[in-house]
Amino acid sequence: MTAFLMLIALFIFLFHFERKALAYDIEAVGQPPKETIILDATNSPVGYFSGVPGSNLSLRDISREFLDALIAREDSRFFRHHGVDHVGLLRANLRNLREKRVVQGASTITMQLARMTFELRERSYQRKLVEMAIARRIERRYSKQEILRLYVNRIFLGTGMHGIEEAAEGYFGKKPSQLTLPEAAMIAGIIRAPNGFSPFRHPRASRREMQMTIERMRSERMISDQQAEAAKKVQPTVLPQERWMEILRTKQQVYRKNWYLNMIEAELAEIVPGSQGYGGFTIKTTIDHRIQQNAEASIQRWLSGVERVGGYAHPVYPALNKKGEPAYLQGAGVVIDNFNGAIRALVGGRDFSHSEFNRAIHKNRQAGSIIKPLVYATAFETGMFPGTFVNDERIKPGEFRWWEHQDWNPLNSDGVQSGMKPAEVGLIKSRNTMTVRVGETAGIDNVHRMLQHAGMADESVARDPQIFIGNISVSLLSTTSAYTAFPMGGVRHKPYLIESIQDQTGKIIYKNKPGHYQLFSPEAAWMTSSILQKVVEQGGSGAKLRQWGFTFPAGGKTGTTDDFVDAWFVGYTSRLTAGFWVGLDQPAPMLKGAYGGKVAMPVWKDTMAAAAKIGYEFTNFAQPTEIFPVRICRNTGLLASPACESHGCAYTEKIPSSLIPRKFCKRESN
After folding, report:
1. Contacts of 203 (CB under 8 A, 6+ apart)
2. What is the structure's pLDDT at 101?
3. What CATH number labels 364-468?
4. CA 47/CA 279 separation, integer angstroms
5. Any idea where the domains of the chain sit in the sequence?
6. How high is the pLDDT of residue 122?
7. What's the confidence (pLDDT) of residue 426?
8. Do the first three CATH levels of 59-251 and 364-468 match, i.e. the same topology?
């Protein structure tokens, strides 16, 4: 009974990997690798991914000596198994157990072809089992001769060589049909470590592998003892590596890569597993290359200007540190279409050739004041109004009784406390003490939940009042995406890069399905957005935007962390939302006075102005259909009573109908 259950369990286990192998298109094995073309939102080509290069020779064009050497060296039972050599697998595992290390592999030629075609590079038993399942499918679809032909035309053979045609030309200046037995054995011998056994750089190792391959051919009775002994004494003449490198340079086309192409390549691998190996796709992306180019140029231009300011004490572009990484000031940017979440531009740094690290998505930095609009929106959800009075005085000991740090005392950036002010002043002027009290009114759990809902935090973020003023690390992409909800009535669309993917036949095999959800209520979004529009007007922390000539309807928030370590500006128009971050990779003060409104907002202004010039329309913001002027008490947020009027705490607030209070303030008259 136990044996039967074990057999059932084994069957289920193997069936699981057989099912996983079905995700891979076996027809792709027989297709010649092609370039994958990347199109932007305007259908302009912006890049490519190459399939594994190689040739398309028939087996008749390849010397019999090489084919025999290959089979003897890599898979002597090739014509007797069905994709997986179970005898070789058992033998290899027994030897590895005996040696207590991996000294022998058991990959067949078919398994190697599966690995090449579908880019199965992960080193794990799971990957190996999927590879075996794919190999069995390949054997059912293709003949042994077809498998062998595909393999010899694609196998990597060192120094940029793919396939026997390039290797024969590169190492010996010959056609594959002209290879001698020693030359064929040398090429076959380097397959397991093409760079480590390279005839260019390691002639002794390559000759040793040649002799071992010849011995394998003799033991398999492919050649006689006399042929083997004679061939082992030969030292093939390998041509200079410089000659091959020059051939390679003339053959290859140079394509510029960048951060968003890297993201697309990673997403393609998830959507179509193993797709890098065979390619031939046409990928329609959301990127608008015109906005992308402007964003890249604007980051470079404005950050170069910061580096020229007197007192700037850090290395300037293009300085690198000892590890070859950028030591200069960095910037990142994201532009998102509010209507659908399409990413129109994504810049991960100043120079991709220096660093492929994507600061727009992988670099979490302290948020500072850019977190505040979400705190205010949460408070508006719970009954506060923009005109509600909030105290701007210092936080008193014990004011947050639920928090253990009773002596916490955040200050405003100007060091001034100004008493009771309308809540909107706290956001317009970016007042820390007011924002902390707004957050307390909203409730720490509600704010924490809102940040999670917006994709800017998770359960690991501590629940303490410091998050109200941005003591939390966030990514630029998640923050910019959250801000798209302000001009969209509280709706946030999931950001995405790929619109669709077509295969080699033109068939659409993937089409993005936009996802969206209600981040804030439409009323809370409208009230917060109304304040953020005032932020960029005279008196707001982003007032310079208008002074620089940006006249379109807009809202946004600057952010500057302590000691000018990080500078942010995230803002929006009716159509686009964009966020920009500036700072050093190793957090350190940039420059005294390097506020977000001075070093990040100019990049935003130039990028959005360029988008307007190419046809993106920035109209007035929509508002809820029913908004009424209502007399409200500034202290309680309830309907103003005659006593409120006499005390001077009544004011008129424009309120969406659904948020109009149903009760009057109970303040008593004098």
Report:
1. 238
2. 46
3. 3.40.710.10
4. 13
5. 2-51+257-284, 59-251, 286-363+475-495+514-623, 364-468, 627-659
6. 67
7. 95
8. no
Do residues 639 and 632 make contact, with C-beta atoms less than 8 angstroms apart? Answer: yes
Q: Is the dihedral of CA 469, 475, 480, 481 positive or negative?
A: negative
According to the 3-state scheme, what is the secondary structure of 588-646?
CCCCCCCCHHHHCHHHHHHHHHHHHHCCCCCCCCCCCCCEEEEEEECCCCCECCHHHHH
Per-residue pLDDT at 579: 98
| C-alpha to C-alpha distance for 258 and 644, rounded to whole angstroms | 60
User: Looking at domain 286-363+475-495+514-623, does it have CATH number 3.30.70.20?
Assistant: no
Count of CB atoms situated within 10 Å of the CB of 201? 13
Beta bridge partners, 578, equal 335, 571
Q: Which string of b and e fits 514-543 if b means at least 16 CB within 10 Å?
A: eeeeebbbbbbbbbbbbbbbbbbeeebbbb
> What kind and span of H or E run contains 659?
none
- Whether cis (ω within 30° of 0) applies to the bond prior to 318 is yes
Distance from the Cα of residue 315 to its chain's centroid: 27
* Closest to 68 in 3D by CA, of 185, 233, 225: 185
d(C-alpha 394, C-alpha 408), whole Å: 10
CATH of domain 59-251: 1.10.3810.10
User: Which two tokens mark 209?
Assistant: 């592998």
**Dist CA 618 CA 454 (whole Å):** 24
Q: What is the pLDDT of residue 670?
A: 55
- Taking a C-beta distance cutoff of 8 angstroms, is the pair 486, 555 a contact? yes
Of 445, 430, 441, 453, nearest to 372 (Cα)?
Answer: 430
The per-residue DSSP string of 240-259 comes to PHHHHHHHHHHHPPP----H
Residue 99, judged by CB atoms within 10 A of its CB (0-12, 13-18, 19+), counts as: exposed
User: Which pLDDT belongs to residue 485?
Assistant: 97
User: What are the mean pLDDT values of the chain's consecutive 10-residue runs (670 residues total)?
Assistant: 51 59 78 82 87 78 95 92 79 56 66 83 72 89 93 89 92 96 96 91 94 95 95 94 84 66 89 70 96 97 95 94 92 98 98 93 92 97 93 84 73 84 95 94 94 90 89 95 97 97 90 94 96 92 92 96 95 98 95 94 98 97 89 94 93 92 82
If phi over 0 gives left and psi between -120 and 50 gives alpha, with beta otherwise, what is residue 347? beta
- Please answer whether residues 40 and 290 qualify as being in contact, where contact means their C-beta atoms are separated by less than 8 angstroms: no
What residue has token string 């036949």? 505
At residue 312, φ and ψ (nearest 5 deg) are: -70, 120
The structure's pTM equals: 0.75
On whether the CB atoms of residues 523 and 658 are closer than 8 A, the answer is yes
Looking at residue 188, its pLDDT comes to: 96
